[in-house]
């Protein structure tokens, strides 16, 4: 599709969004503006560099572990937010995940052989909530998170992520509370849609270190797209004297320094060959369970690959209508949908969050996310295909 067609469709989308009141999270975009992946795949951004994830667990210094967690957070941002696009290519909207949709994959670094495993499930559709669990069992490190997405439009699409992630390192019995930043999607009228993060976010560790990240962006007169400044300091230091600092453009490159000596520790370039993501390992589509994302959306993805937007719309509508019929059937019988791999716990059981969030302004908002979502290890260990005997996303 040429740039003029893209610009025209984006303007049509703007007109449509302007007529929609309230939350847009379950509103689907035109087929031509959809990404060839579902929301449940978004967690790949945290998992696709397993060597860096393992390095956090291998680092003996607590302050350096906080720096590595910051790097892990920053490195994930571009692939998380520039969906099916890039700094010079318009991003697209992921497919809205259906209730019960799963994404199971792993990544192995070809040099270090570190491996990360990702489990993701759409645990709610109204409101849309995705739960994810990332682990490297060999190195004793895991991260778990969930998010409800709320979207509004006022000339810019405003995406609020209600949720958080928690990382745990077994060797040090250490936890890190990681925020999920809000995003603004801009550039509709220019024909190149891009994400922007604004505001200040905090990562805290149980070892006593705080990371403060200030995001800014492109303005009418000044400012550069996707810029940030970050510093790490001891939580008990009222002066917030920096130990490490990082600054640059999270979608392109940044510099990390030791603030005490001024020494440059790293110049990170996202597109550098040495920072290429590890290859994904995933069950072939033909062998996947009907509830696994790439098989469930197979007809849609094939249509996108062929450039057949009629097929995309027809296959997408088939899944969506079947899901509506399933919800109506369950409601008529008083049945409640039960997630396969994650369970919801009460807010008061989430003590680690409350300890790390103290003084950060970060709140749980469990009433908006149907509780706090955690992986049920027992269910994962016993998982066998078919996952839901006699039931597929297309109906009972």
Automatic annotation (TrEMBL):
PANTHER family in UniProt: OXYSTEROL BINDING PROTEIN, OXYSTEROL-BINDING PROTEIN-RELATED
The family database entries (Pfam families) matched by this protein are listed as: Oxysterol_BP (PF01237)
The protein in question is named Oxysterol-binding protein
- Protein family per UniProt: Belongs to the OSBP family.
Which cellular component terms (GO) are annotated to the entry? cytosol; membrane
* One example GO MF annotation: oxysterol binding
């Amino acid at each position: 599709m040429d740039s003029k067609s893209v610009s025209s469709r984006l303007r049509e989308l703007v007109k449509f969004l302007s007529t929609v009141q309230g939350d847009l999270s379950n509103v689907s975009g035109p087929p031509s503006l959809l990404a060839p992946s579902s929301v449940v795949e978004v967690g790949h951004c945290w998992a696709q560099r397993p060597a860096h994830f393992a390095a956090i667990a291998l680092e003996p210094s607590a302050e350096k572990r906080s720096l590595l967690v910051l790097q892990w957070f920053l490195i994930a941002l571009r692939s998380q937010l520039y969906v099916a696009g890039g700094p010079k290519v318009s991003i697209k909207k992921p497919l809205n995940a259906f209730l019960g949709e799963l994404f199971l994959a792993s990544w192995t670094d070809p040099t270090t052989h570190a491996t990360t495993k990702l489990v993701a499930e759409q645990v709610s559709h109204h409101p849309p909530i995705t739960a994810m669990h990332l682990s490297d069992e060999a190195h004793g490190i895991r991260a778990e998170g969930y998010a409800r997405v709320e979207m509004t439009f006022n000339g810019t699409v405003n995406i609020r992520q209600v949720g958080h992630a928690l990382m745990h390192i077994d060797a040090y019995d250490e936890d890190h509370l990681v925020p999920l930043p809000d995003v603004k999607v801009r550039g509709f009228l220019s024909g190149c849609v891009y994400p922007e993060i604004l505001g200040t976010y905090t990562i805290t560790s149980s070892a006593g270190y705080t990371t403060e990240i200030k995001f800014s962006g492109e303005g009418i007169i000044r400012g550069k797209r996707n810029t940030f400044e970050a510093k790490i300091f001891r939580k008990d230091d009222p002066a917030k004297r920096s130990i490490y600092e990082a600054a640059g453009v999270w979608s392109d490159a940044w510099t990390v320094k030791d603030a005490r000596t001024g020494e440059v520790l790293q110049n990170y370039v996202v597109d550098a060959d040495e920072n290429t993501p590890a290859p994904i390992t995933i069950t072939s589509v033909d062998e996947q369970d009907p509830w696994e994302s790439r098989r469930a959306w197979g007809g849609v993805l094939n249509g996108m690959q062929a450039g057949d937007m009629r097929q995309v719309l027809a296959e997408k509508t088939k899944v969506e209508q079947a899901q509506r019929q399933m919800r109506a059937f369950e409601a008529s019988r008083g049945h409640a949908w039960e997630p396969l791999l994650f369970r919801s716990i009460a807010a008061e059981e989430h003590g680690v969050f409350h300890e790390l969030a103290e003084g950060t302004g970060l709140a749980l908002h469990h009433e908006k996310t149907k509780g706090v979502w955690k992986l049920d290890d027992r269910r994962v260990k016993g998982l066998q295909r078919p996952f839901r005997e006699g039931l597929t996303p297309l109906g009972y």
